[in-house]
Amino acid sequence: MALRVYNTLTRRKEVFEPLHPGEVRMYVCGPNLYGPTHVGHAMSYLVFDVIRRYLEYRGFRVSHVQNFTDIEDRIIETAREQGTTIEALAARYIERFLREMDALGVRRATVYPRATEAIPTIIEIVQTLVARGLAYASDGDVFFRVSAFPAYGRLSGRSLDEMQAGARIDVDPRKEHPMDFVLWKAAKPGEPAWDSPWGPGRPGWHIECSAMSTAHLGPQLDIHGGGQDVIFPHHENEIAQSEGYTGTSPFVRYWVHNGLLRLTEGEEKMTRHLGNIITIREALDRYHPDTIRVFVLSSHYRSPTTWSEDALAAAARGAERLRTAVETAEELLTASAASPAAAGAPPASAQRGPGPGLGGEDLSDAAASARATFEAAMDDDFNTPGALAALFELASAINRATDAIARGREAPGPERRAALRRSAAVLRELGDVLGLRLASSVTPVQVAGLHDLARELSRERPDLFDPARLEAIPAPAADQAAGAGAAHAEALIRYIAEGRMQARRARDWATGDRIRARLQGLGILVEDTPTGFKWRVR
RNA sequence: GGCGACGUAGCCAAGUGGCAAGGCAGGGGUCUGCAAAACCCCCAUUCGGCGGUUCGAAUCCGCCCGUCGCCUCCA
């Protein structure tokens, strides 16, 4: 089945065919660097990350360009307020942005061009537009002449007349037409400026994307993405500038726009100048990246979505369910591979395969059918809720199989083991297409809590918790990146959980339950199994 | 005011003409020292309201109610 993508320009789903077979050129509007990014940005970048991952899964080679807008009114204003330069401000937010994207598992773009590095290209584009009569200079500013570009308004679906009728802006008297927009702005005293044929100035608000996309991807893009709020005027203007400059149409084959995120039902979208934001950093402090992904992917990318604690909690449990299914299956395969029973001939009952009600009878088909459902959903304009449903169904099939094996207390036959292994691998693979890690991760706050708890226990119950062993646990190197402390956390948890097991073996349930409650207070769940214990992060 | 999108169970959310996916929560059961996880069973005769088209509509059309987006910086 062919991949179909909804194109904002035509308002229809269209079969996806890139300009050059097998190769996709994708440009996603990046952040304006005047402040921290919020979960609304995260949603957009997660959506396009999944689109890219799926295209690559489908065998396309993807060139993914994401710009940084590092020169613009608000940046100048903010830098001035903070007594810093636009360069320093931009550098700070770029670094933070990339760190946050990494934490969310957003794959790095192929290139991250910056507006200030594209000034010569911008000037060349503006000059060309002026030469072709598509732009005109006035007092050091240069405006785009919308009346000279007949297709203006097509993307946002309105005519120049309609736009004027609803316009709420004061018309600049220097404009020939109220909808003409600025390509180049004359510098005011004290503002950053570059020399140009029209005097010192800086780029307008939309021209940088035309310059950077053309420079890195050529005159035609396959996919151009962003939030629905940038359809007009930003993307509308980009079409006018780019096609006016290159003379090639269409500038973009598929315009893809994600729905916007709002903070509360019935309220406006989340946006920085309204102040109703949750920063990505705040979200990452509270939620596992998989939780944020499952939340975002639970609704279709074009639907408006509401950030709610309830929805995030549900997403957290859902992500956990997928993770548990894979981890349990993998542990079971590892454990049974190590046992002699699995190496030799399994009992006849296991060889015959599971009987009715034992589950697993459909396991060999489960992986294939999950993949088919997943692909059908993703092929239909990236229907991630449908794709997630396929993963949940596969997880259920895996759980039925592991449950049957655990209940049967017998080594599974080679065929069942192979089917289980395959199913778990497919769940991981398809999860990865959605950018899901399906692995626990412990936050620095939790590690600190674990440390305190371990110390406390070794002081109170040295009989169960050997202080010498605690001292022997190596602290993680200070310069290690986030996530590298995982081994350290693991060691602390094992230390605590093993002491707890000792108490339980002595049938000291009270101590065992108390420690379990303390760990749960840290967000770490310890479960007792016939063979020992398991832990995971909630 | 103009243009556009949406309204599906307690919550989140797929489904765009043929008997309502999935997740969370909830109820019952199995397992467990107790839990947790997992498994089994139950949980929308109904898709904002009212009309219409059709053998048949959550899905198409009309009107109404509600919410959001864009028209201005914005992912």
Mind explaining what this structure looks like?
- The chain has three domains: 213 residues, HUPs (Rossmann fold, 3-Layer(aba) Sandwich), CATH 3.40.50.620; 120 residues; 94 residues, no CATH class.
- The radius of gyration is 28 Å and the shape is elongated.
- It is built from 19 helices and 14 strands.
- It has 538 residues and is an alpha/beta fold.
- The chain has a four-stranded parallel β-sheet, sandwiched between helices. A four-stranded antiparallel β-sheet has the order 5-6-7-8.
- It binds one RNA strand of 75 nucleotides through helix 1, helix 5, strand 9, helix 7 and strand 11.
Describe the secondary-structure layout.
Blueprint: E1 4-7, E2 12-15, E3 23-28, H1 39-57, E4 61-66, H2 73-81, H3 86-104, H4 119-131, E5 135-138, E6 141-144, H5 160-166, E7 181-186, E8 201-203, H6 207-217, E9 221-227, H7 231-246, E10 252-258, E11 261-262, H8 280-286, H9 289-297, E12 305-306, H10 309-338, H11 340-343, H12 348-351, H13 363-379, H14 384-408, H15 414-433, H16 444-460, H17 467-472, H18 486-505, H19 509-521, E13 524-529, E14 532-537
Parallel strand pairs: 3-4, 3-9, 9-10, 11-12
Antiparallel strand pairs: 1-2, 5-6, 6-7, 7-8, 13-14
The protein binds one RNA strand of 75 nucleotides through α1, α5, β9, α7 and β11.
